[in-house]
Amino acid sequence: MGSGTKIGRVRGLGSARQGGKHWISGMESSVASLLLSVWLVVSLLLLPNFDQATLAQWLGQTSVAVPMILTIGVFFWHTQIGLTVLIEDYVHDEGLKLGTLMLLKLYALAGTVFGVFAVAKIVFAGAGA
Question: What range defines the domain where residue 87 resides?
Answer without folding.
Answer: 6-125
